[in-house]
Amino acid sequence: MAVVRWLLLVLAVLCLAIAPAEAGPRRGTPARHGALPGKADERPAKPAAKRAAPSPPPRPALSVGPPNDGKLVGGARLDTSSPHLRVVPAYLPGDVRWGLPALVSMIERAASGVARRYPGAVLEVGDLSRRGGGELVRHHSHESGRDVDLGFYLVDATGRSLRPPTFVRVDPSLQAAGPRGARFDVARNWALVELLLTDPRAGVTHIFVAEHVRQALLAHARKRGVSWPLRYRAALTLLQPTGAESHDDHMHVRIACPPSSQGRCVEISRDAPMGAKSRPAHARLPRRRASGPTRKPAPMPLSALAPAPHPAPVPVNVDDLLAPKSAPSKPTPDPSPSPYD
User: Fold this and answer.
1) Measured between alpha carbons, how far is residue 313 from residues 288, 306, 316 in Å?
2) How open is the CA angle 252-238-170, to the nearest 5 degrees?
3) Beta pairing partners, 149
4) The whole model's pTM is what?
5) DSSP state of 130
């Protein structure tokens, strides 16, 4: 019995001595074939996956050709969910709310700006262009993403804003067709014109509107003491088109060709009458003439004592240039399509 116990003790000692030498790799990390026991696996790490190439920048939108014979490439769609603008119900059919990004963002900024000045004001929007531009029903322009029709801000006899189902005509007394007492809101419509002309991104070249509406807007700006440069620009930009509808129910706004479309965009409408060229959006305005000398005059030479061959120039009063003009006679209907509609 003692011998058996002695043998068991010897076997136990031998087992404890051999166990560390036969220890393998850690659990869960099987040893590589041919690796020494107890050595860490020294396989080289896999190379990191290559990063995906950056996507190319989006191409700029293009206005190709003139406003009445062109197309739109890569335009933006007007967000009609804004609470400050709505599409006039008569112009809802068709996906014609596309334009250059500068035009679309200008409309949204102008609508928000008028609503800030006059809470509750909602801009009435008609047609812009189709997604790819081209011919558009009811229009002879709106083909290159640079045109938009905007309805007038109208109020009733109590001053409440009106939401007509279509554009509403305004007569020379600024009364609007529809409910009794409906009228053209000069203050809100001037605010719209002011925001369009001073937009930081889009350069407005034309706002086609009836002459009596133009006169009312300029008179309101003068009464409010609007700066001379802004009134001067408004007087140049607001105009009644020739050979076309008088635009007494909406404003037809057109912006300049963007720099991205240089060489492909045409400012002037095809078949436009002579003298109808678009003016640069940010043209330098002529300086006001001083009413008197601004510096000390030079000594008068003896030759100046002779009689002057021509009378001295008379200083020009700029306000006279901006004074309302007499309403022109109704244009003779032209059977050919107008490039301004």
Assistant:
1) 14, 18, 9
2) 65
3) 252
4) 0.68
5) -
